[in-house]
Amino acid sequence: MGIVVQKYGGSSLADADAIKRVARRIVDVKKSGHDVVVAVSAMGDTTDDLLDLANGVSPLPPAREMDMLLTAGERISMSLVAMAISDLGFTARSFTGSQAGVITDSVHGKAKIIDVTPGRITQAIGEGHIVIVAGFQGVSQDTKEITTLGRGGTDTTAVALAAALEADVCEIYTDVDGVFTADPRIVPTARKLDQVSYEEMLELAACGAKILHLRCVEYGRRYGIPIHVRSSFSQLHGTWVVNDPAAASEGETMEQPIIAGVAHDRSEAKITVVGVPDKVGEAARIFEALADAQINLDMIVQNVSAAATSLTDISFTLPRTDGQTAMTALARIQAEVGYDKLLYDDKIGKVSLIGAGMRSHPGITSKFFGALASAGVNIGMISTSEIRISVVVDENAVDDAVRATHTAFDLDADEVEAVVYGGTGR
Amino acid sequence: MGIVVQKYGGSSLADADAIKRVARRIVDVKKSGHDVVVAVSAMGDTTDDLLDLANGVSPLPPAREMDMLLTAGERISMSLVAMAISDLGFTARSFTGSQAGVITDSVHGKAKIIDVTPGRITQAIGEGHIVIVAGFQGVSQDTKEITTLGRGGTDTTAVALAAALEADVCEIYTDVDGVFTADPRIVPTARKLDQVSYEEMLELAACGAKILHLRCVEYGRRYGIPIHVRSSFSQLHGTWVVNDPAAASEGETMEQPIIAGVAHDRSEAKITVVGVPDKVGEAARIFEALADAQINLDMIVQNVSAAATSLTDISFTLPRTDGQTAMTALARIQAEVGYDKLLYDDKIGKVSLIGAGMRSHPGITSKFFGALASAGVNIGMISTSEIRISVVVDENAVDDAVRATHTAFDLDADEVEAVVYGGTGR
């Protein structure tokens, strides 16, 4: 029997009872003959509480010290999980990111994992212990400073551990039953996907499905780690994220769905640079300024210039949280670039249709746009990849757009499948 | 200008305002030209909160995981102090016990410091930073496990850092103005001591004065680190714990007081083993059993045996928290030793008179006992060292005994000197 890596998030570790439940689940896997390595997030509201403390002493705390502070959260949860396991008669050893050999770069607050050297973990496994590892954190290669991995960090920790330990599977426990064809809060008849490819999951994550973080899926794909997304509140099978779902389920190749799901995202804003002189290098200057300000753009659209004026408009979307920074950076180069004005719109939403099957099926785009038109939804921007079509719509039209698309592609289940767990303390 | 090491306890770090006040105090020392290294405890009630969490998941948590949990407390406070310093325009680096090179043995929950290898601290000092170190914690030499130092651990961390860094002084900040001739809550006219010898401070600490922990004073004496005990709530000079107070204050040798103070302790219990056969080896067997149970005894008294019976009684005091363990250990050897019965009394208190001057002044004992008699206090047990006389009295007689002794030795100040700070949040 091989190694099973599990990840439990904050909502699965909300209080003492939740921790005991997680401990029982871990022990069950150990009893079944597997070695178990568990990555944990901070308990429920711990991170928010720590952020409040930081804000109480400094409006702009140094990133190094912020990482030092926040990493206390997983330290608390991991030792409590180890204690709860010990109370069930099994031995557990908790390790910080640093002790677990999670080596990162030096970018505090959003460090990237460079390597995992799990010597202490394999030794503890060899001694028969269950291993609990603090998620979301590591130690920098050069400076030996404590770092955090940013959003979705514990998912990434879990997959990185699974890769380093050559685990059979990485189980990501969350408060929903798996990956759905759409957000069940918007589409009650959304279906749980039994399997989804890394490629589709990457697009889903990038397009606003919050269930798995992009970096975690990227890590899983690179090392070929099967990821099982499931609920810590039930015993149901969840969604397997694997290399090629069709090949994995032998004899079912015909059944690979064309569309994996409909994702949506209300966290972006749109900026339009109006009246950009249509000559070589102007667009480059604009995107250079945005890159210098460390802003990640998403969709970019440039219309053909009106022949009469030789001026063009450039629109792009970006995280709303970067909106002010981007506007400031662009204002600074107005004279240099000679554009007319800037428009800022944060009342937008993005709706994306994702499916590896659309590669070989023509007509997907027209069906998608037809569904939106029937629902009375106006399309603001369009962007496509080989397995994805995204549109920007009015923020208030997102729900209608998601529902219309979901129905148009026959994704609705016969009955409501989604259950929302853990509703009490969270 | 040399290095100043400071220690701030939990009551000095109760909330954001307290942390900002501590930061200003630290920055003031840095501005005066000193390098500053600060050891901090966990904030106010953090440790209790963490203990509650542990009790919530396991009635008997493994010591290793308990240390992992509790060390989160100083991690939080040290990063917050560093942030508050940064907010004042100075740079600070916080380090865990492990990062700071606090090397200990492997006894979780009460590890002893073996060595301090402060490479990262000296490097940070060299780069101009103020250094904040997590008190109370270290890393074990052999197993590289996180350990805690037990009660008074942060004081010990501070003095150990001062020794390793060859600091000019170790300032222990607390919520009283210094070391007093008696507990000001019992004796309002108690006087603050300007200076006290390591030797006297050791006896004071051992006899119940809670202001400095025994191990901290021992460490200071061994390495000759001047310890300045003072309040974080005022700018007053506190009490200097030094090698030879008389020699230190030149020209004032004649003024060295005979008595440093009166200490009391209500944390002990008394066990009497009644009817022990008065022959070789019986007492040894009793104390062997107690040592095997890891119990530290304080006072031990054996009366001469009644000639008629050849039986003797052995009484000793010990921490009340060890009472049950000791009784169990002794009950187990009753048949072997052949004693009659065990008596347990936890309604006792210990009052101690301490002063290096009593070495050369006869008549101290009779004056002490005379004061107790005048106050109507009955003496249960007596124990003495070269610079201390301790008596066990009824728990309810402790206050009267302390006051009577304090007055008899002319220790009362003309006016009330003691101020109790930080009364709000604590």
UniProtKB/TrEMBL annotation, chains A, B:
Keywords: Amino-acid biosynthesis, ATP-binding, Diaminopimelate biosynthesis, Kinase, Lysine biosynthesis, Nucleotide-binding, Transferase. Pathway: Amino-acid biosynthesis; L-threonine biosynthesis; L-threonine from L-aspartate: step 1/5; Amino-acid biosynthesis; L-methionine biosynthesis via de novo pathway; L-homoserine from L-aspartate: step 1/3; Amino-acid biosynthesis; L-lysine biosynthesis via DAP pathway; (S)-tetrahydrodipicolinate from L-aspartate: step 1/4. InterPro entries: AceGlu_kinase-like_sf (IPR036393), ACT-like_dom_sf (IPR045865), ACT_Aspartokinase (IPR054352), ACT_dom (IPR002912), AKii-LysC-BS (IPR041740), Asp/Glu/Uridylate_kinase (IPR001048), Asp_kin_monofn (IPR005260), Asp_kinase (IPR001341). Pfam families: AA_kinase (PF00696), ACT_9 (PF22468). It comes from the Bacteria. It catalyses: L-aspartate + ATP = 4-phospho-L-aspartate + ADP. Residues 271-347, 353-426 form the ACT domain. One of its GO terms (molecular function) is aspartate kinase activity. Its EC number is 2.7.2.4. It is an enzyme of class 2 (transferase). PROSITE patterns: ACT, ASPARTOKINASE. Belongs to the aspartokinase family. Catalyzes the phosphorylation of the beta-carboxyl group of aspartic acid with ATP to yield 4-phospho-L-aspartate, which is involved in the branched biosynthetic pathway leading to the biosynthesis of amino acids lysine, threonine, isoleucine and methionine. This is Aspartokinase. It comes from Nocardioides potassii.
